[in-house]
């Protein structure tokens, strides 16, 4: 089971032990984000993180969980500012700031974090 309690399977009958980079690519849209309704699990996050050159540790998983909570609450992936504010509300100012999030998800924490969390591309991201 993934962190969102969804088994890793879909209409493509993808199983965790069969997940390869090519299979993951086939589940993604043109921007490299999972298409709506595709499976997500920890293993998917690990593969996306590897593509980004990120080794997921406890602080990453904490933010990934908040990204997924934001999506569940608001029905959309957060922009950077919304992500910072959401993290600040839930984890305090030490973690709810751009520098902390950039350290975890370089470039664009909202874009990179959303991809790893199996969410759609944030609307305002290039």
Report what the structure shows.
28% of the residues are buried. The chain starts with 20 loop residues before the first helix and ends in a 10-residue tail after the last helix. It is mainly alpha-helical. Helix 3 packs across helix 4. It has a domain of 59 residues: Orthogonal Bundle (Arc Repressor Mutant, subunit A). The protein has 6 helices and no strands.
CATH architecture of the domain at 58-116: Orthogonal Bundle
Order of helices and strands: HHHHHH
Q: What number is the mean pLDDT?
A: 85
Low-confidence stretches: 1-16
CA-atom Rg in angstroms: 14 Å
How many distinct helices?
6
Q: What separation lies between the terminal Cα atoms?
A: 32 Å
CATH topology of the domain at 58-116: Arc Repressor Mutant, subunit A
Strand content: under 5%
Structural classification: mainly alpha
Percentage of residues in helical conformation: 40-55%
Biggest sheet character: none
Based on Cα principal axes, name the global outline: globular
Question: What is the topological layout?
Answer:
Elements lengths: L20 H6 L15 H11 L5 H17 L5 H12 L6 H7 L4 H8 L10
Helix pairs in contact: 3-4, 3-6
Short description:
This protein has 126 residues and is mostly helical.
């Amino acid at each position: 089971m993934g962190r969102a309690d969804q088994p890793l399977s879909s209409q493509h009958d993808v199983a965790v032990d069969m997940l390869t980079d090519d299979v993951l690519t086939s589940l993604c849209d043109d921007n490299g984000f999972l298409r709506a309704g595709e499976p997500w699990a920890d293993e998917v996050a690990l593969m996306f993180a590897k593509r980004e050159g990120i080794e997921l540790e406890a602080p990453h998983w904490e933010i990934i969980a908040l990204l997924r909570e934001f999506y569940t609450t608001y029905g959309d992936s957060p922009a950077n500012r919304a992500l910072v504010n959401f993290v600040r509300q839930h984890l305090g100012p030490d973690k709810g700031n751009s520098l902390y999030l950039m350290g975890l998800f370089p470039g664009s924490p909202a874009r990179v974090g959303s991809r790893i969390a199996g969410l759609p591309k944030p609307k305002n991201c290039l």
